Amino acid sequence: MTGSDLPPPSEVFAELFATVQAAGLFEDSKTFADAEPRRDPAAILRDWRVRPPSGPDGIRGFVAANFTLPVPPPATPPDNLPLVEHIVSLWPSLTREAETPKVGSTLIPLPYRHVVPGGRFRELYYWDSYFTMLGLARSGRQDLIEEMIAGFGSLIDRFGRVPNGTRTYYLSRSHPPVFYLMAALSKDRSIDGRRQRLDWMIAEHRFWMQGADGLAPGGTHRRVVRLSDGALLNRYWDDRPSPRDESWREDIELAARVPDRLAQDVWRDLRAAAESGWDFSSRWLGDRRTLETIRTTRLLPVDLNALLHGLEATIADEAEGLGEKDVARYFAAAAATRHAAMETHLWNDVCGFYADYDLDVGEVSDQPTAAMAFPLFAGMASPRRAERTATALAAMVAPGGLLTTLEVTEQQWDAPNGWAPLQWIAVAGLERYGLDSLAGRIADRWVSVVQAEYSATGRLIEKYDVRRGGVGHGGEYATETGFGWTNGVTLEMIRRMPGGDALPKPQDEAPRQAS
Q1: What is the pLDDT of residues 59-99, one digit of tens each?
Q2: Which residue, among 61, 56, 12, 62, has the nearest Cα to 33 in the 3D structure?
Q3: Is 356 labeled as catalytic in the residue annotation?
Q4: pLDDT, tens only, 126-158
Q5: Which of 279, 312, 318, 324 does the annotation list as catalytic?
Q6: Residues 294/280, Cβ–Cβ less than 8 Å
Q7: Which of 332, 410, 451, 476 could disulfide-link 316, Cβ–Cβ 3.0 to 4.6 Å?
Q8: Beta strands 224-226 and 232-234: pairing type?
Q9: pLDDT, averaged across the chain
Q10: Active-site option among 123, 407, 462, 465
């Protein structure tokens, strides 16, 4: 099965889909993208074409007659449990069984149980899941970890990559490549298990490096870029230059406000930012302010390349341990080459931190962002550069944790927001270099902002305002509750604090077989 076997709803329903999304019937454009047809999609489209409804009421009636819309999760009253116990109690409500979607559904089936983020995010998401799995490990839920690793492996087997999420409209892009970090959480140390995970990691690397062979200096191809000096680095991309199905109307309206650019280029950059996980941020914007200036594909992101270095180094180590010497040598060389390229092109010596490389300007960015912590997390930095980066990170620490950027915009991956995954990357990266004081400060402040909001409302949320406390701001949708990666990272940080190991853990359930 390939991605082409599972077309997105914008292709399946063509002008029907575009009309419904343009009508703005739903507050969240993802609602109709996730709707399930009540009968054969071809028959629905045929009826639409024979007698297309007119006006909002007619369109709404047609949708109601032919589609089942997703039901928002019910609001749950506070359970008044201590924070740790509350997080552990959430795993069952966020766990989904192996699925068999209805014909025409956009949901991609998975053969194993898995944990979803929560709220509007009703399906499995790629990089979210690693941070969720940290909390599963601390909750004694190794059973779910093993099944989720197998589930992600099944996606690589089917599609040659891990999609952004398990919806057909996510198949044209991936997410920050963290599968190797998930694989490291497995306790299956059998030779067969290790070889299987190694094969999956190699397949994912192949996806990210497609087109690299023979790429001339100055050339670009999908997710790979070769600089004029021959250095090979990666960027975020998306294989569809069209509006996102889950944000169709918004993307069309944005492109219309940028008449001096091809709409498909605007849409590609929006989609590439979605692949980055930072959707959206001043980091991707030409003026660092407005979404109309988005230019994601013209940047070589420091976090992406640090993760790919980690993937290459992990493949080399695993291959060496399994006796696959040629594979080990190849990937060790790839990791060393990427390391050298990053130290040359993704380090800003004037500012003293790692940053993205701007292809149009031909130099590294001077914008400080939390992404500077990724080379520390990957263990790539020299001690001196790690210390200088830590100084820059310290300037981004607010009362509730690490800011995403210092820019205040309407985008959710900017100040004053803080996000669980970036807190963890920074804390783990700093600890790797013995910079424990700053790591502890970030962890303590993050736990405090999460605890304060939980004490006030009984909920955990997707993002926080780390300057003033409470709910984070901005973005294309309301801040969601649940919430997978907040739960995972917060629990991991609490358990690493003094006395954390004494906190109770539930017992594993037995892993289940694929259905």
Answers
A1: 999 999 999 999 987 777 789 999 999 999 999 999 999 98
A2: 12
A3: no
A4: 999 999 999 999 999 999 999 999 999 999 999
A5: 279
A6: yes
A7: 332
A8: antiparallel
A9: 95
A10: 462
